[in-house]
Amino acid sequence: MAVKVIELKCIGCGKCVRVCPFDAINMVDKKAKINDKCTACGQCIEACPVDAIEKEENKYRAGGVNVDEYRGVWVFAEQRDKELLNVSIELVGEGRKIADELKVPLTAVLLGKDIDNLAEKLVKYGADEVLYGDHELLDVYTTDGYTSVIYDLIKERKPEIMLIGATNIGRDLGPRISARVHTGLTADCTKLDVDLENRRLMQTRPAFGGNLMATIICPDHRPQMSTVRPGVMEKAKYDEKRQGNIIKFIPELKDSDIRAKVVEVVKGGKAEVQLEDSKIIVSGGRGLGNPEGFKLIEDLAKKLGGVVGASRATVDAGWIEHGHQVGQTGKTVRPSLYIACGISGAIQHLAGMQESKVIVAINKDKDAPIFKIADYGIIGDVYEILPLLIESLDNVDDIVEALNRG
Amino acid sequence: MDFNLTKAQQMVRNVMKEFTEKEVKPIAAEIDETERFPIETVEKMAKYNMLGIPFPVEYGGAGGDELSYAIAVEELSKACGTTGVICSAHTSLGCWPIYKYGTEEQKQKYLIPLAKGEHLGAFGLTEPNAGTDAAGQQTTAILDGDNYILNGSKIFITNGGQSDTYIIFAMTDKSKGTRGISAFIVEKDFPGFSIGKIEEKMGIRASATAELIFQNCKVPKENLLGKEGEGFKIAMSTLDGGRIGIAAQALGIASGALDETVKYIKERQQFGRSISKFQGLQWMVADMATEIDAARLLVYRAAYNKANNLPYSKEAAMAKLFAAQCAMNVTTKCVQLFGGYGYTKDYPIERMMRDAKITEIYEGTSQVQQMVISAAVLK
Amino acid sequence: MNIIVCIKQVPDTNEVRIDPVRGTLIREGVPSIINPDDRNALEEALKIKDKMENVKVIVLSMGPPQADVALRETLAMGADEAILLSDRAFAGSDTWATSTALAAGIKKIGDYSIIFCGRQAIDGDTAQVGPQIAEHLNLPQITYVEELKIEGDKVIAKRALEDGHFVVESKMPVLLTAIKELNEPRYPSIKGIYNAYSSDNVKVLSAKDVEADFDNLGLNGSPTQVNKSFTPPGRSGEGEILQGSGREAVESLVLRLKEKHLI
Predict the structure, then answer these.
(1) For chain B, how far is it from start to end, CA to CA, in angstroms?
(2) What are the pLDDT tens digits along chain C (263 aa)?
(3) Same domain assignment for residues B25 and B100
């Protein structure tokens, strides 16, 4: 067990039982007992008023390596259709900061076919070095192709950190590589820090449906791997004058190495909602009462030049497509203005939008948690307020003038 | 004494909850408004063996018990009283008499498709002049060679017109009074059998309630259920069990209404705070919750007794009497707590109040239940 | 043909609330459910079983003894067999250690054409265990499957991307992960529930039973560890509730948004 109760100290107050998110502590004879459900998350350690719970450090871990042999920060620069994804540029930005702290070079790993221009771009964005694997079979992503090339690079060059965008492809690739290398991978990170003393990456991610944040470390295995949520980190700045080293190589790959083959690439199909890039988002929640409510949301969004977001409840109910979902299992957004309509503000929703600059909440329940984080709140029925708001946007100047005069 | 459901019963509850939430609730208002019989829900219930819960697997049933059946009706009725009664009338009144009194041939031919839900069942006892006084049957059945010839009509028959198989009661010997009543299994396509008037009702509006007409209707001799003259006994024992189903329906309606109301009064603001913060309303909620729980214990006890071959006639009557009163009482109070909105069709609560009323009337009025109970107490 | 479906019993995180006073999770009354994506994986396996001859669906899970109920539910939905890997040695596993244990369980079962997992579990949202199992077993993988066909010894899958999809083909055996778009899971049938509880077809196996490599199990076998966990810092807005009638409140809002140059 990783978390241990010191029985002599335990006063049986039960605080640990109440805070445990996993139902992993029982009270037996007025002493806390930790059961198999424990994930060593440490909530109980902080809650215990008498320091009767402590974490046991593990002495030995299978597959651990000499971490001093590993140096350098890598980011996987995902491209689709010979274009870099935004998240790749965000990773270069974040990777740059980490590399500077650790005083090591930043390397971007780029795989594809005939994309020398992207390698150049990565340098301009801040990579010191680009490992550019050029091959027909890397033009379109395959698990087998990408894993095998990146695995060989890691074995040969031993980076200490590798960041991958948490896209549908990054989340296919990351775990496969980490399992082949035998190292830890932390999914969907929203914050990365460095513990300089131990050269450890402190990887913070939401857990338990966004109800909990956890900081994960990978002490004995290298590289320390994270997938990083798109839209969370700031993009690197493009600097035409930057110089770097592009190492182009042609990996040895045969058609037969690829077991799961991509036979067709289809773009679109579902119109992707550009939530992450939008300055204004108007979101609807369960409080709309029915799918038709989204028409009103759309009207307001259109009027404001924004896009439509949605809570998980409405997506689960089939009122609107998943692409609109904001929150823990949807998109993370940080627009200038976020208008939440009929959204109560479940923690998992807040996780995806609380970085917005200005939050407006409209809800008829004055106790809705959304009001706690909103800059402006209106307590009222969305069906009354939204039409008024849409109408007011047509004569903003008159209203401002009238109110200022009054 | 053990108040815990078995693990299987707990899972039945969870599945019924999810099924009701996803399949039943979304259409409840629409089918009430349009009086449309929800045939698609019946098909889905059949698929998951929800129409033969207490019957053995070899007869097409789910191999469950009376308590899980009551739980199923309760959960369905939380969102839609109509769906609850379709399941209840089919199971308790349509299937059970064949399971209990049918010959092996009758079970093979009729019970299996019924319990599988491929066929729907109904029960025809009530006549224009024989309601509570079921002994006043006017429908006659005369043996003629290999067939009984039925003449007469039945009214207020639940699932009437939608069912494939009907349990019909008729006089084979008028001189013997109740001992002259016999029961028959009648298929919807038997010559001389037709559906008359479909009732327009105050509540459970999407449930089919029909008149059945028999004009020289030919019923093969082998479709006699039990023996000649056993009809009254069959009818009464069937209704004993049916009451558990209706009591569960009433319980479900009450319980569903309280759930809706709790949600509403927490949200609704008056005088600057949620109306659930007012003590007068809190007291009403406390009384309703207590009454519902008491009803639940009565219903589950009756179901438990039936499942375990213990006497259940009085227990079922008590459960139905109390649960029906509870449904009426609770839904009336819930409409009150919703205020003006409760009186509109914007919320389900007025429908629940309309649906509740019938539980005090059918399968024995509350007064009949009192007769059954007092007869048992005073014997 | 055997299809092995890996499932996880999870707390329904949708039902989790935060105690507004203490700032801690309110766990009471949060039901345990089969992870939603795993239900889609199971449904697809059952659909294959419905369509093809001689298909056996085996459900595999790792968890505490209480996960029994989740496995019974899969039997009630139509799975043929269920296996629960349960051992104190598994406690505290990260995705590496979990996938190691599940891979050992799969090897023990031996004969399989498809391993089906849900894309990710709602209590962790990592989406890692599926691909890591595939790596341990050296199988091809197709993740984010939203449509599936079987043709001879091959599977052809539509795998979802943010902006479209790939059509991916692979020979079996293969590991697939399912997303919600793949299908609409069936309910357990009432008959299935009673069957599931009357027969003893949930097998419980220990780490030893599946000959798992103890060095790679549980907390000691996990490369990652939780350094600390905390409830997310609440953002505090200025929290101004705009007063007055609907129209007045809307007008104050418009004024404030205008001042901040947001409209």
Answers:
(1) 28
(2) 999 999 999 988 777 766 656 656 676 778 899 999 999 999 999 999 999 999 999 999 999 999 999 999 999 999 999 999 999 999 889 999 999 999 999 999 999 999 999 999 988 889 999 999 999 999 999 999 999 999 999 999 999 998 899 999 999 999 999 999 999 999 999 999 999 999 888 999 999 999 999 999 988 899 998 888 887 765 655 578 888 888 889 999 988 888 887 88
(3) yes
Q: Which of B7, B15, B48 sits opposite C197 (nearest CB)?
A: B7
A286 labelled ligand-binding: yes
- Which CATH number goes with the domain that contains A37? 3.30.70.20
Is residue B220 located within the same domain as residue B319?
no
User: Does B2 reside within a domain?
Assistant: no
Same domain? For A332 and A216 the reply is no
Q: Which two tokens stand for residue B203?
A: 């509540």
Domain that holds residue B275: 235-378
Q: How far is B8 from chain A (nearest CA, A)?
A: 23
Tokens of B164: 């494939």
State chain B's maximal CA–CA distance in angstroms. 79
Question: Which DSSP string do the residues of C198-221 spell out, in sequence order?
Answer: HS--EEEE-TTTTT--GGGSTTTT
CB distance from C50 to chain B under 8 Å? no
Query: Which of B91, B116, B141 is the last residue in one of the domains?
Result: B116
C190/B15 Cβ within 8 A: yes
A241 and A316 fall within a common domain: no
Rounded alpha-carbon distances, angstroms, from residue C24 to A40, A329, A373, B358? 17, 21, 17, 47
Shared domain check, A337 and A207: no
Rg (CA), chain A: 25
- What is the domain range of residue A309? 280-405
In chain B, DSSP assigns E strands to 121-124, 140-144, 147-158, 165-171, 181-187, 193-198, 209-220, 224-225, 269-270, 273-274
Tell me the whole-structure pTM to 2 decimals: 0.86
- Taking CB atoms and an 8 Å cutoff, what residues of chain A touch C146? none
B40 is catalytic: no
Task: Report the distance separating Cα B280 and Cα B293, nearest Å.
Answer: 21
Q: Is the CB of A364 less than 8 angstroms away from the CB of B274? A: no
